[in-house]
């Protein structure tokens, strides 16, 4: 039987995420003795998370409420089932190894799970795949908080502390409505600091959740009629109004629309 690593750090308590944790299928993956020790520590803070580990390290997780998937053989044979069965995968495996393992299974950011890498010493937490849409960035920050580690975020909107166009308002139930090319083009305008019109005609006003002020290139309006389109590189429009083909054509690839939930009785 493998003995736990001595002098392991105590478990920690995670703050509540924007999305209820029970809705996210989370799996911690460890293949080394030190990685299993770090995963066991994180598992104490995430009892809803499943664990995938080499059978010879399964004893590290004895006494925890988490479900353990102990495999024999190679980790590469587990990647397909992991991608199919979980929403977030936290690998206590080297970054290079994870990239090679997951490469044959990648499909698109709308389908792939979030993939996060934690180094063997538990010092750095790196979102590798599906940072925004898949939620890996958010979970990386939570895992880093739990392990007292440093999150290493590389997506431009997170590094620049500006708007994540593709998931804006998701924590409030907003649904993005735009061709993918619009989201790509408008995201580039946002992170490049170009003037952006943010028109909010519906939805809750507490959509900006960062501790820093709203970036200076984001200009807020309460009605579409207030916006001089010639002054802005792109428009983010939060509305329940119908957006006709003429409007989409007028703004070409410069418009992204968000649909908040309808209020009760509306």
Layout of strands and helices, then pairs:
Elements: E1 26-30, H1 33-45, E2 50-54, E3 68-71, H2 79-85, E4 88-92, H3 95-102, E5 114-118, E6 124-129, H4 136-147, E7 150-151, H5 156-159, E8 175-177, H6 180-191, E9 196-200, E10 218-221, E11 234-238, H7 245-251, E12 255-259
Parallel strand pairs: 1-2, 1-4, 2-3, 4-5, 6-7, 9-10, 9-11, 11-12
Antiparallel strand pairs: 5-6, 8-12
Structure, explained:
This protein is of the alpha/beta class. It has two domains: 134 residues, Rossmann fold (3-Layer(aba) Sandwich); 95 residues, Udp-n-acetylmuramoylalanyl-d-glutamate--2,6- Diaminopimelate Ligase, Chain: A, domain 1. It is 24% helix and 20% strand. The chain contains seven helices and twelve strands. The strands form two sheets. A seven-stranded mixed β-sheet has the order 3-2-1-4-5-6-7, sandwiched between helices. β11, α7 and β12 form a beta-alpha-beta unit. The longest helix has 13 residues. The N terminus is likely disordered.
What descriptive keywords fit this protein?
Udp-n-acetylmuramoylalanyl-d-glutamate--2,6- Diaminopimelate Ligase, Chain: A, domain 1; 266 residues; alpha/beta; single chain; 5-stranded mixed sheet; Rossmann fold; 2 domains
Largest sheet: 7 strands, mixed
Uncertain runs are: 1-22
Provide the number of structural domains. 2
CATH architecture classification name of the largest domain: 3-Layer(aba) Sandwich
Distance between the termini: 62 Å
From the alpha-carbon coordinates, what is the Rg to the nearest angstrom? 21 Å
Strand percent estimate: 15-25%
Helix content: 10-25%
């Amino acid at each position: 039987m493998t003995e736990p690593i001595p002098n392991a750090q105590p478990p920690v308590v995670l703050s509540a995420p924007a999305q209820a944790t029970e809705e996210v299928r989370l799996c911690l993956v460890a293949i080394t003795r030190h990685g299993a020790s770090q995963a066991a520590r994180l598992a104490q803070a995430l009892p809803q998370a499943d664990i995938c580990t080499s059978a010879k390290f399964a004893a590290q997780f004895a006494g925890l409420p988490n479900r353990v998937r102990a495999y024999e053989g190679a980790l590469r044979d587990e990647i397909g089932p992991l991608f199919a069965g979980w929403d977030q995968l936290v690998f206590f495996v080297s970054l290079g190894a994870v990239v090679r393992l997951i490469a044959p299974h990648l499909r698109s950011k709308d389908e792939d799970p979030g993939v996060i890498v934690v180094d063997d010493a538990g010092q750095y937490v790196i979102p590798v795949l599906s940072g925004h849409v898949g939620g890996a960035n958010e979970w990386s920050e939570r895992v880093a908080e739990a392990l007292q580690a440093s999150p290493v975020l590389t997506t431009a909107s997170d590094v620049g502390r500006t708007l994540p166009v593709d998931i804006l308002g998701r924590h409030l139930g907003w649904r993005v409505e735009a061709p993918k090319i619009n989201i790509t083009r408008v995201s580039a305008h946002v992170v490049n600091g170009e003037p952006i019109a943010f028109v909010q005609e519906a939805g809750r006003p507490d959509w900006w959740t960062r501790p820093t002020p709203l970036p200076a290139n984001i200009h807020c309006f309460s009605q579409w009629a207030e916006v001089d389109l010639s002054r802005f590189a792109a428009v983010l429009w939060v509305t329940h109004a119908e957006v006709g083909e003429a409007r989409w054509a007028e703004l070409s690839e410069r418009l992204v629309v968000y649909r908040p939930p309808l209020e009760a009785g509306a």
